[in-house]
Amino acid sequence: MHDFHVHTYYSSDSSAPIRNMVDAAIKENLEGICLTDHCDIANPPTYEDEIYDYGDYYAEVQQYRDKHLDKIAIRMGIEVGLQPSVVDRNREYLRGKAYDFLIGSIHSVAKQALYREDYLAGITDEQGIFNYFDDLALCIQDTDLYDVVGHIDGVRRYLRTKAVGPEAEAQLFQLIEEPLTHCLKEIIHHGKGIEVNTSGLRYGLEAFHPMTSILKRYRDLGGEIITIGSDAHFPQHVGYCFKEARELLLHLGFKYYSLFTQRQAEFITL
Q: What's the whole-model pTM score?
């Protein structure tokens, strides 16, 4: 299998050298890995740009591609922080850069970082969820900025009340069903996809991102493009719970998962 969401020391929240992440993928007997370091323009709370030197990144990725050509496929991706207010700046940063794969992820809503406690200050969990999906609905219209949407229900990681157990998940799905379904239809209409991000379990949730009911809705709507990623920031998390992710997708009726090369999707039998 291929891990299509991996961070290295080119992301501010990781200290892992590329070689360590590649070595971990080889140790896990993965067929491939896609490095997807962060590009977060005007990243709250400082509103500074979290970007890296593309030339240095490209050269180092190419070095390990050549070194491990016979052991593992290494692709170069990026995780683009989607915000309605920075669309043009994201587009400018990406211009002329040869990425294989773009994950588009919501990390900030209404210019506030999701991971900070003040995101929900003065509002309910429900309003925080609706604000998240409002921004997502706007961002997915800019189809040149992503190939798949990352951790599409990532906001649930930061809610005061976590959805624990089947009944709680059903209640949460009922709450988000309308805005979520709208977003999924738009993603499918534009020929884009979503990811299974296995980090949800690492963060103490009872399911991956997205939760199972969302994956089922995506499938029922005709969604086919789906990548699998660990969202690893450390070597020990590369390929995390991939066996379980594969089994879940098969159970839900998916027959393939996707890889991207030069931003073109390829379907691989599960």
A: 0.95
